[in-house]
Amino acid sequence: MMRVKRDWIIPPIRVSENSRSVPEDLVQIKSDKIFSGEVIYKLEGPGVDQEPKNLFEIDDKTGWIRSKRPLDRERHRSFTLKAFALSPSGERLENPTTIEIVVLDQNDNKPLFTQKQFFGSVPEFSVPGTLVMSVSATDADDPMTENAALGFSIVGQESIPPNAVNKTMFGINNQTGAIYTRDVGLDREVVKEFKLKLRVADMGGDGLTGDAVAIISVSDINNHAPQFHPASYSIKALENLYNVEIGRVSVTDRDEPGTGNWEAKYSISNDPYGNFAIQTDPVTNQGILMVVKPLDYEVKREHTLVLAVENVNPLSSKAPNSPLSSATVSVTVMNENEAPYFKENPIRIEVPENEKPGKLLKSNIASDPDHSELRFEISKDPEGWLSIDGDTGDIYLRRSFNMRSPHVQNNIYSATITVTDAGGVSASAAVNIVLEETNDFPPQLLPLSSSLCTGGSRATPGLLLTAVDEDRPPHGAPFHFLIVDSLSLNWTVTKVNDTHAVLSPTVELEVGEYAVVVWVEDSGSPSHGALTQVNVTLCPCDSYGDCRSESGAFLGSSVGISFIAFIIIVACAVLLLVLLFLAVALNACGRRHHMKRGSGLLVGESEDDIRDNVLNYDEQGGGEEDENAFNIDLLWNPRDAPPPPWSFYPGSGVPRGKQPLRKDAPHNLPSPIYPRRPPADPTDIEDYINDGLEVADQDPNVPPYDTALIYDYEGEGSVAGSLSSIASGSSDEDQDYDYLNDWGPRFQKLANMYDPR
């Protein structure tokens, strides 16, 4: 039979910590292979070749495992190692064996409190057994041994202030560390705080020890009610002031300051109108008395207030059962000169816009609390419509209102009144005068004249009328239009809307001017209306809808002149022109027939040419291109044939810059001497003209003397142009002189002197 081989089974090896006998043999291992050959032992694991290293070793020949240094259980409670059996060549001869090393605890650590100081509090007058707080401690030794079994105790007690309490007031649970009260008499007003010296020990309280301190405060309870000190006060307050402090009251409270058990809460009674209020000063706990509504010396000169006080927190059941503390405050009101006041501000006055001056608008507008004498004045009145009685304040209308004033906005006119008392204190109030619209103006019809097209497809259905009213609503539109039958027959008016109507004929009327009387009325109360004449011209129209005749439009304009008046004015003007013309003609004829010989028109004292004394024409100049300018004066006998055309149109028929050519004389011959004076005692200017004509007929260089005046050539290209263009645009070549044959025998020779050119 074969025996089954089993692995090594080694029980845990126990080693005491802090052992001083090192190195120390712990256990020996052996392999069954030692009988067949050499075996080498090796050890691996924490404490050997892993951290913490060099704590253990094994003899590779004998298999003894030893500790090399003292062990610390608080750092390493156990070690798990593996042992190997190897051949000299390093081959594993057997499976590795696990070796468990357990470090045994020793009481080498003293217990420690978790805090150096513990803080707690306990209400005053707590009963014995009241839990105050708990403390705790730790021990690094094995908690499964007595080395870590802790016991708590109080080894000392101090009171603050010192020696305020001599008996032991607190105890502690030995196992849990809970601190509790042991006796009665915890009074915060006597002792504020306790300082306890605590101790903890292992081995159930008999081993190593550790100390700490517990500080226990005695907390306040509201066992004292606040008390007024003193219980009565006298305070003065100025009238008309509010939201101001007028005085303070004080209380005492033995509870802890700054807490709700100490903080006072005040109340006021016997203040029916709520003129006063009181609040607490958070620092001093005093009551601050204030006036929240103005006091009036003239109404009440003294107020008696009753104050009560209590704490913010309710009283403890352990406090004495006593009523709330109270105090009496007498407030004396001090008088001052108060400003007068208006009974309403702004002062509202409603009045019709057409109210007559002198009307009383408002009275009894202001009063003075001190009953002193008042003076009134108007400090703002842009239009100067108002006046005021300086003593009574009665407001009167000084001038009529005008709704169109720029100072009237939304029918309201604003002014300002100031009142001043005997002490110089004043007050002001606005005056808002609401002007009630009245119907003051009749509507005005528009347009007053126009034209209507008649006949055909261009006939106008009617004239659109409208109306304007200076009054404001509701005294304006809607307007009512009406034709007065007795004044405007054959016409009708049709309403379009509230402001427009159409005027149209009821029958087909002839072309002409018509005056139509229309009645227009507003919607005011009472209403106003007016008759208005509308001048309508019926006329045929062109394609643009305009009258073809201008007279109708003029007569129908808004000027308002009738047709008959126009005819009369025109006739008078024509008659005046005719009379003026006749007077000038008669005067000229009378002078001519009464002129004596030797005193004719051409007689003069000058030796110069007589022509210059009659009509002296300045040389007009030849323009930019004329260098042959000359001047010829024309004298024509009105008894002869009608004047030639060139007498009215200078240069007609004659090219610019030239004179007509003569056929009866050679060119460039010397000119004869013209007469400079008329013969002695000429009977008529005709004789002088005849003499000059003879000389001119003999002069080959100039036109006949009785020809028209030819003005100088104005030049070509001139902006001014030429006078010759007035008569004709033709040249000499186009001029026909045959018409000279029709002017009688005196001009026959002229016709023969010029060629057809």
What does this molecule look like?
The chain crosses the membrane at residues 563-589. Keywords: Calcium, Cell adhesion, Cell junction, Cell membrane, Glycoprotein, Membrane, Metal-binding, Repeat, Transmembrane, Transmembrane helix. This protein is mainly beta and 757 residues long. It contains six helices and 43 strands. Strands 27, 30, 33, 34 and 35 form a five-stranded mixed β-sheet that branches. It has a four-stranded mixed β-sheet with strand order 1-7-6-3, with no helix packed on it. Strands 9-16-15-12 form a four-stranded mixed β-sheet, with no helix packed on it. A hairpin with a 6-residue loop joins strand 31 and strand 32. The longest helix is centred in the C-terminal third of the chain and has 31 residues, at 563-593.
What separation lies between the terminal Cα atoms? Answer: 181 Å
- CATH class of the domain at 112-219 equals Mainly Beta
Helix amount, in percent? Answer: under 10%
- Give start-end ranges of low-pLDDT stretches: 1-6, 550-561, 593-665, 708-715, 718-731
Function: Cadherins are calcium-dependent cell adhesion proteins.
Membrane topology: Single-pass type I membrane protein
Subcellular location: Cell junction, Adherens junction; Cell membrane
GO cellular component, one term: adherens junction
Short description:
Helix content is 9%, strand content 32%.
Give me some keywords for this one.
four-stranded mixed beta sheet, disordered N terminus, Immunoglobulin-like, 757 residues, mainly beta, 9% helix, 6 helices, five-stranded mixed beta sheet, elongated
